[in-house]
Amino acid sequence: MNDFSAKIQRGLYLPGEKLPTEPEVMAEQGVSRTVVREAMSRLQAAGLVETRHGVGTFVLAPPVGAVDALATNLTINDVLAMLELRISVETEAAGLAALRRSDEQLALMQRALDDFDENASKGESSVDADFQFHLQIALATGNKYFEDFYRRLGVSTIPRTRLDISKFMPEPTQTYMIRINLEHRNILDAIAQKDPQTASAGMRMHLTSSYKRLRHAIELAGQHDGAA
Q1: Considering only CA atoms, which of 209, 179, 170 is closest in space to residue 87?
Q2: When you count CB atoms within 10 A of the terminal residue's CB, does the N or C end of the chain come out lower?
């Protein structure tokens, strides 16, 4: 799915040109709809394409002197900034969700994590399941502003939609995904037990760990020049 970025950079898809539809890409490359949407989200986050509702996805004109936008420091710094924002907002959301969640909302969180595990075990994208888990927490707060925040940002809140995380990580992708979902399940357990302090602490640990892992891996790879 990285072919689209390379083709756009090489000029094989010109500015204003419409990309193939989701079904066409799925048939051509033999991938799931989730994988296609994740790839398109990365391209949108990188400023390479725009999606016009009901019309299609179109290539944007690159800025002068642009390089592979998916690997620039701008994108990396953007991902880190997004994680900083999520730490502050979602830590509070997890605590409120523990106090206010319904059994139905808890079941939807559980289903999202089960889908995450299933997709990860098959080597498929877990972005949608990851997003659904965090969205259900936002919904469980009973505060529409948490929901609006998360829905407005969409799957771009998940770093994997904006950056190829695997190339920065020292461990196999599947091992990384298993660890991520274990952190999710610790949060879920606290919400299930209606323990707001532990839920908030678990969310802060989860997102802070993601931030630190990404920053450390990038610095080791020599691809991030930001100060600690």
Answers
A1: 209
A2: C
Report the C-alpha gap between 158 and 52 in whole angstroms: 22
pTM comes to: 0.64
Give the pLDDT confidence of 167-195 residue by residue, as tens digits: 666 667 778 888 899 999 999 999 999 99
Topology (CATH) of 3-59: Arc Repressor Mutant, subunit A (1.10.10)
Q: Is 1 exposed, middle or buried (0-12, 13-18, 19+ CB in 10 A)?
A: middle
Angstrom distance (rounded) from CA 69 to CA 219: 18
Neighbouring-strand partners of residue 49? 59
Domain 72-220: give its CATH code: 1.20.120.530
Rounded to 5 degrees, what angle do the CA atoms 170, 172, 178 make?
Answer: 115
Intervals of the chain under pLDDT 70: 1-3, 6, 9-11, 62-74, 161-171, 217-218, 220-228
Q: Residue 60 in contact with residue 15, Cβ under 8 Å?
A: yes
Query: Do 72-220 and 3-59 fall under one CATH topology?
Result: no
Contacts by 87-93 with C-beta closer than 8 Å and gap 24+?
87/204, 87/207, 87/208, 87/211, 89/146, 89/149, 90/134, 90/137, 90/138, 90/203, 90/207, 91/200, 91/203, 91/204, 91/207, 92/200, 93/137, 93/138, 93/141, 93/146, 93/203
Could you state, in order of their start, the residue ranges of all structural domains in the chain?
3-59, 72-220
Nearest Cα to 57, choosing from 7, 16, 3, 2? 16
pLDDT of res. 145: 93
